[in-house]
Amino acid sequence: MSRRPEPRIFDVLSTSVVTPNMLRVSIGGAALDDFPDSQDGGYLKLRIPGPAPTDKPSVRTYTIRRQTADALDIDFVLHGEAGAGGPAVSWAQAARPGDRIAAGGPGPAKLLPPDADWYLVAGDMTALPAIAVALEALPDHAVGHAIIEIQTEADRQEFRHPAGIEIEWLVNPDQNPDVFEHALRAVPWRDGEVYGWCATEFDEMRRARSYLRGERGLSPAQLYISSYWKQGLVEDQHREVKQADAVATSA
Ligand SMILES: Cc1cc2nc3c(=O)[nH]c(=O)nc-3n(C[C@H](O)[C@H](O)[C@H](O)COP(=O)(O)OP(=O)(O)OC[C@H]3O[C@@H](n4cnc5c(N)ncnc54)[C@H](O)[C@@H]3O)c2cc1C
Predict the structure, then answer these.
(1) Is the pLDDT of residue 105 over 90?
(2) Which atom of ligand 1 is found nearest the CA of 130?
(3) Exposure winner among 46, 175, 232, 233, fewest CB in 10 A?
(4) Exposure class string for 213-224: b at 16+ Cβ within 10 A, else e
(5) Are residues 99 and 126 in the same domain?
(6) 35-60: pLDDT as tens digits
């Protein structure tokens, strides 16, 4: 039986503001020596230390927005009122160069297949790093529509993507699932083979799944769909709900 590798210990190199509600923490150091290359869009399981050294760390999942020779950039959505965003957000806001953080992984990126006739992509700010990586990797001739839900107009980001992929920035500060579903249903359906990609809050994901899989008939091969968090639950609780949901929907 293969054992999971021990988490690596990374050094915090720097922090920077991406947009008002997105904070980048760049990590690196000796842990990168045996870290695999080209992990943009993959994910890490960060072990966020508790207040006391003897506390069990909180495991939180984050996307590698970009990997360079010296660093992994991780973009944290600043959810919650100041100081009340959960262990991961609090850790990121307090992080300073020289701090250390253990992380398992990387887990694989969920990229878009290069040969679909068109793409329908949707997600909230937690999925923005993964969406940006996926769209950056598409061939130039790709066409489609990407809905990216953001907290404020100022949370729009520039990133490279094929000109034929229309980016719709959906400002939805309270993350009302009706707004997300409405926007998804309003995307004009095109001819040809579609590939759907959706990652967002659990209830938004369920509505998107019901539309894309249930009404539009997308097969598992045509759709990546996942919840990245759930309103009111910490990550461990969300993981349990997600597993139960996966079992229920595959039955
Ligand atoms: C594969 C994968 C990749 C991910 N990549 C990223 C990423 O690159 N960047 C990123 O920011 N997140 C990402 N997430 C989501 C992130 O793991 C969760 O948001 C996580 O719960 C945050 O941990 P926390 O300690 O801040 O909050 P928790 O302790 O987990 O939760 C505390 C409270 O905050 C609420 N909460 C959690 N997240 C949010 C949110 N985004 N908005 C509003 N309320 C929230 C919870 O419902 C709970 O009430 C990813 C998740 C997955 C599964």
Answers:
(1) yes
(2) 8
(3) 232
(4) beeeebeeebbb
(5) no
(6) 999 999 999 999 999 989 899 999 99
DSSP reduced 3-state for 21: coil
Question: Rounded mean pLDDT of the chain?
Answer: 96
At residue 1, the pLDDT reads 53
How would residue 116 be classed by pLDDT, with cut points 50, 70 and 90?
very high
Locate 218 and state its tokens.
Answer: 């997308």
Nearest CA to ligand 1 atom 38: 229
Range of the domain at 205: 118-250
Could you give the CA distance from residue 86 to residue 84 in angstroms, rounded to a whole number?
Answer: 6
Residues 160 and 125 placed together within one structural domain of the fold: yes
Are 122 and 180 contacting, i.e. CB atoms less than 8 angstroms apart? yes
51 CB near ligand 1 (under 6 Å): no
Q: Is 210 helix (H, G, I), strand (E, B) or coil?
A: helix
Which residue shows structure tokens 């054992």? 3
Residues 81 and 122 in one domain: no
DSSP secondary structure string for all residues of 87-150: HHHHHHHH--TT-EEEEEEEEPP-PPPTT-SEEEEEE-GGGHHHHHHHHHTS-TT--EEEEEEE
